[in-house]
Amino acid sequence: TELSLSLRQPLYTGARLKTSIALAENAVLSKDSQHDILQQAIRHQIETLFYRAQLLHREVKTQQASLDRVQKNLVQVRTLFLGAQAMAFDTLKIFNQKLQIAIEQDRLRKELRLLEIHFARTLDLPQPRPIAQIDLARPAHTPLALDSLKRVALQRRPETQAIRIGLQAARLQGKLARSAYFPAVSGVLSYNIGKPGLNQVANEWMDYFAAGVQVQWNLWRGAQDRHRIEQAEIEHNRLALEEREVLKKIDADVEHAWENLHFSFKQLNLAEQLLAQQRERFRITGTLFSNGMATSQEITDAESELTQAELFRERVIVQSYLAAADLALATGTMLQ
Asked: Which alpha helices (DSSP H) does 83-157 contain, by range?
């Protein structure tokens, strides 16, 4: 009968232990990078939904201003009709315009309610909540160097970090597979107690310590280690190709977002010029209409085009914010 308590300490493992620890650390980094990718995407989605809601709010407000103008025109044309200076058709035409605006307002409010439902689902809210309207200031056109943005993207995009972590994991897998060609050497220290123990003649209980070195070396495993090395090399080559594609996509994403942002700034300048001209046209046409020198068709056209110019400016303002969010996502700075 013998009892033994052993302590084993690896002395040489062919880098198996060190590589296994590195692989475990690499797996943690991989999860962190995937978490960053998900966070960036969710933040971008939330900002996109929020700015879309702001656009709907601003469109409803613009349509209400249009409705007020049309109501004022309707009062004027009724006054002219009672004075025999306008026909019933003129009154009907402007009233129809008023109905069309009311229909569009209802559609916009419905779109806003649907967006609030989507927003609540994205934020995991129990019930949809109204999205508050904020005053979006006119975005300032800050010149951005495209080359510097690309460098930032290469440093900050979590996708680049994820692919590099994957390449490192493939290299470690290959190193771990090659370590199987080397022996594993361990030091062993044991405490033993038993009968007859080391003295077969006395046949008594005794205890003793034993120390030694254990060597384990798999000399043949049916080419399993070679296949593991080949698989690691194939995975590394695949990830290297994927890295090139990811870098190309990041470069294209930054250029696309940069072009959209600059385009929105140019469009905003044109939209403001167009709005100023349409306001002046509506003012002149309104004066002529009040004096019976312009037709209901002319005042209707002037008001409709003024409304379209106002809506266009609101859309371009919100589009510039959306383009800025796209650029933040493209450069990996969405969470800043």
From this structure: 88-122, 146-156
Angle, alpha carbons 222-225-226 (nearest 5°): 90
Instruction: Specify whether the CB–CB gap between 44 and 86 falls below 8 A.
Output: no
Rounded Cα–Cα distance for residues 264 and 261 (Å): 5
Strands across the sheet containing 2-12: 2-12, 184-194, 206-216
Cross-strand pairs, 320: none
**Side chain identity, residue 179:** S
pLDDT by residue for the chain (336 residues), tens only, comes to: 677 888 888 777 767 888 888 999 999 999 999 999 999 999 999 999 999 999 999 999 999 999 999 998 888 778 777 776 667 777 888 888 999 999 999 999 999 999 999 999 999 999 999 999 999 888 877 767 899 999 999 999 999 999 999 999 988 888 888 887 777 888 888 888 877 655 666 667 777 788 888 877 776 765 777 788 888 888 889 999 999 999 999 999 999 999 999 999 999 999 999 999 999 999 999 999 888 788 888 989 999 999 999 999 999 999 999 999 999 999 999 877
Cis preceding-peptide flag for 126 (omega within 30 of 0):
no
Percentages helix, strand, coil for the chain (3-state, rounded to 5) are 70, 10, 20
Asked whether the beta carbons of 22 and 179 are under 8 A apart, the reply is no
How would you classify the pairing of strands 2-12 and 206-216? Answer: unpaired
pTM: 0.80
With a CB cutoff of 8 Å and minimum separation 6, the contacts of 255 are 146
What's the first-to-final CA gap in the chain, in angstroms?
69
